[in-house]
Amino acid sequence: MSDALLEPFSVTIDFGTGALVPDPDVLARRLADLDGYFLADITDPEVGAYTVHEVRVPKTGNNLLSSTTVLEPGKVGDEYFFTKGHFHANRDRAEIYLTLSGEGVLVMALDDGRTVTKEMRPGVANYVPGHWAHRSVNTGTTPLVFYAVYIGDAGYDYATIAERGFPVIVVEGNDGPQVQPNPRYVTS
Ligand code: PAN
Ligand code: ZN
C-alpha cells in the first residue's frame, strides 16, 4: 500500500466566503507576489489578491486534494485580478473547478499556445484536462470563489507561466470583459 489508511471525513464549505471547517492550510497571495505578471505596473503591492484554503490530505497519487480559492475583484491597468496560473508539475494530472460565487473567466492553454476560455459562475463545473495550464480571472465586482479538486500528486509548475505568460489576457472593454492576445506571450 502506497499510503496510510485514512479515516473518512467531511468538510463544510461556505459558498460565499470560501471558508472551510475544519481549518485548512491557507496560502495568501498579495499583488507583490504577482510582480511581473501584469502588463501594467502594480501600484499597491500590499493589496491582497487571493487566498487558497486547502483541505489537509497527503499529496499522493491515490488521494484527491481539494481547496477553495477566493480571488478578489480589482484591476491592474486594464487587466482584471488573476491567479498566477500554472501547469501541473505532473503535466497529465486533471482538475475540476466548481464555481461557488462571483463571476470570472478560466483561461486554459497548452504548451503550443492553443487556448480555451470558459465562463466561471456559480454552479458551473469546469473540467481542466491534463496538459492544460490554467488561470482564473475575476471579471466581477465581488470575490470569485471556487472549489477545486485535483489529483494528489499533481504539483505545480509556476516557472513556465512566469517566464512565458499566457497567450491571452482578460481586460475590461467598453462592453465588459474582453479576451485579447497577450503582446508579451513568449512562444515555445
Ligand atoms: C488551484 C490553484 C489556486 C491558485 O487550487 O492553485 O486557484 O492559483 P495558482 O496556484 O495558479 O496561484 C489549482 O489549480 N490547483 O491545482
Ligand atoms: Zn491546478
Main features:
188 residues, 41% strand, 1 helix, binds zinc ion, Jelly Rolls, binds 5-phospho-D-arabinohydroxamic acid, mainly beta, six-stranded antiparallel beta sheet, single chain, three-stranded antiparallel beta sheet
Descriptive overview:
Strand 6 and strand 7 form a beta hairpin. The strands form five sheets. A six-stranded antiparallel beta sheet has the order 3-4-5-13-8-11, with no helix packed on it. A three-stranded antiparallel beta sheet has the order 10-9-12, with no helix packed on it. Strands 1-2 form a two-stranded antiparallel ribbon. The chain has one domain (12-181): Jelly Rolls (Sandwich), CATH 2.60.120.10. The longest helix has 6 residues, at 159-164. The N and C termini lie far apart (40 Å). The chain is 3% helix and 41% strand. It is globular, with a radius of gyration of 16 Å. It has one helix and 15 strands. The chain has one helix spanning 159-164; strands spanning 12-13, 20-21, 25-30, 48-54, 64-71, 75-76, 79-80, 95-101, 104-109, 115-120, 125-128, 133-138, 144-151, 168-173, 176-181. With 188 residues, it is mainly β. Residues 52, 67, 69, 83-86, 95, 134, 136, 148, 150, 154, 156 line the site of 5-phospho-D-arabinohydroxamic acid (PAN). Residues 86, 88, 95, 134, 150 line the site of zinc ion.
